[in-house]
Design a protein that fits this description.
By secondary structure, the protein is mainly α. The protein contains six helices and no strands. The protein folds into two domains: 90 residues, no CATH class; 76 residues. Helix 5 runs antiparallel to helix 6.
Length: 195
């Protein structure tokens, strides 16, 4: 897409409704591409017009489409200069540095960076909250398992005690006195083992 457009002295677009610096027009142009977007134009002029648009029309949104687009292009090494300019690598690096200064010194860029950090923190908080929930569920399951084991142990103890009492009832009276002592000793032993 060719980004050439007529501008007034103050940096405003002559036809603002058709300007690629309008976030809505920019969005329409960028999202129509199926696989590749090639934007041809003067990045400094686009950033200047974008500044005008943000200050005049989009103060509440502070939408800086070209700044974001240029930033993405630079990060992906897809920012190219026309061969007709006959620039060497040092000149290209110098121009890219100037564009970076224009992009990164804006309040919008700082806001975008802070919003990205906030989103990252929100994701981390959500992950930690999920881990906490998982640990609480695991803890509840362990508590239930412990309670079940304790209940089962009590049932087994009671069953063992009843079985021993039934065995001892069949013994003679003389042996019964000694057996009661053994039952009490066994009861102490079971309590020690299972509690």
């Amino acid at each position: 897409m060719s980004t050439t457009e007529s501008v007034n002295q103050d940096g405003s677009s002559v036809d603002a409704a058709k300007s690629f610096c309008d976030p809505y027009v920019f969005n329409t142009a960028i999202t129509r591409a199926k696989s590749l977007v090639v934007a041809v134009g003067n990045p400094f002029l686009l950033l200047k017009i974008e500044d005008f648009f943000v200050k005049k029309y989009y103060k509440e949104h502070n939408a800086r489409c070209w700044s974001t687009f240029f930033d993405m292009c630079m990060k992906k090494n897809s920012f190219y200069f026309a061969k007709a300019l006959n620039l060497n690598k040092e000149d290209e690096a110098l121009i890219l540095d100037k564009i970076k200064v224009k992009i990164y010194d804006t309040e919008q860029h700082k806001i975008i960076q802070l919003e990205k950090e906030i989103e990252t923190l929100k994701e981390e908080i959500a992950t930690l909250a999920k881990e906490k929930d998982d640990l609480q569920q695991e803890n509840a399951a362990l508590r239930k398992e412990k309670a079940d084991l304790k209940e089962n142990s009590a049932i087994i103890l009671e069953q063992d005690k009843i079985a021993l009492e039934q065995q001892l009832q069949g013994l003679s009276g003389n042996k019964l006195g000694n057996s009661e002592l053994h039952i009490n000793d066994m009861n102490v032993c079971f309590r020690t083992c299972y509690n």
